Amino acid sequence: MICVLRRASEPQKSWHTVELDPRSLTVRQCRGFRNADAEPEAQAFVDAWKAHLQEVRFGRKTT
C-alpha cells in the first residue's frame, strides 16, 4: 500500500511517500522529495502511525 504524507499547512503538496505492507503492518520505505531519506519529523509520525495500526489490528500496544 502506498500512502502520501502531507503537512496540514500545505495539504495540496506531497511531503513524504510511505510504502506499507498491509499484511504485516511493516513500513517498507519512507522517502522524501527526490528520494531523500525521511526527515526525523516524518519518521516519528510514521512510527507512531504504525504502532497505532498494530494496536488496532492486534489489540495491544507495541513500542
Please outline what is shown here.
The chain has one helix spanning 40-58, and strands spanning 2-7, 10-21, 26-31.
Structure report:
The chain has 63 residues and is of the alpha+beta class. It has one domain. The chain is 30% helix and 38% strand. The protein contains one helix and three strands, in the order βββα. It has one helix spanning 40-58, and strands at 2-7, 10-21, 26-31. A three-stranded antiparallel beta sheet has the order 1-2-3, with helices on one face. A hairpin with a 2-residue loop joins β1 (2-7) and β2 (10-21). The radius of gyration is 12 Å and the shape is globular. The model has no long low-confidence stretch (mean pLDDT 93).
What distinguishing features does this structure have?
63 residues; alpha+beta; 3-stranded antiparallel sheet; 1 helix; 30% helix; globular
